[in-house]
Design a protein that fits this description.
It is built from 2 helices and 4 strands. The two termini are 20 Å apart. The protein has a 4-stranded mixed beta sheet, with no helix packed on it. It is an alpha+beta fold and 76 residues long. Strand 3 and strand 4 form a beta hairpin.
């Protein structure tokens, strides 16, 4: 069922950041993982292989910017 959800046109793209990209985002915004918004481990929109502590990049469409990235950390 998760694959069906992820392919729906209203669901923005979700991707797991590798550790170097995750560290770059944390440094860019000057925060730790605990300060990022959360996403539950069992959320049906998570990509396969996401585990607790991973940072997920969600790319949403934006009328003003074209697209806008949002970041969430996976929690229990």
């Amino acid at each position: 069922m998760a694959k069906e959800i992820l392919s729906h046109f209203l669901i923005p793209a979700h991707e797991i950041l590798d550790e170097s990209s995750a560290q770059a985002i944390l440094m860019k915004y000057g925060v730790g993982r605990s300060k990022l918004p959360k996403i539950m481990k069992h959320d049906p929109g998570l990509p396969d292989g996401a585990k607790i502590g991973d940072i997920i990049k969600i790319t949403r469409k934006s009328k003003t910017a074209g697209s806008a990235p949002y970041y969430r950390v996976v929690v229990e």
